[in-house]
Structure prediction request, 161 residues.
Amino acid sequence: MIPGPIKKFFNSILLSIMTSTIFHCFQIKSDAAKVYEFLTTLDGLSGWWTTDTTGNTYPGGKIRFGFPNGFFDMVEVTESLRNQQVKWVVMESNFPSGHEWIGTEISFEITEDNGCTTVRFTHNNWRAVTDFFGVCNYHWGLYMNSLKSLCETGEGNPQVF
Prediction:
């Protein structure tokens, strides 16, 4: 029998080997506080991802992101470190391939240097690289550009309802 901590360690290594990750790294000409605000407030999230955003953005809270035709994703906020990091875990999705999102983790790591903020975005723990994974990777790139635009110009390009 393997002791609990050792088993947990090996399970985490195995999970990281067996899963896939979407990763985007980019710079925003803005301070970390503004980027963090747009990742942790309903108004901010509505400004770059989808205007149909509701819920509680604090750790332990759930945020619902609505899309056309009644589709939605629901995340739980698992971590929120002011001006440093935001993490979510996907709890629900009713997209046709949305089951692929359930249990995945979305993370924004934020670092600032002289008024310029680097964002390291990851969407990890995908069980396979599928067509839906590719579609999501493409759309995350568009939405990261929308976040950058919102921070730099005050105008994002969210899904509008």
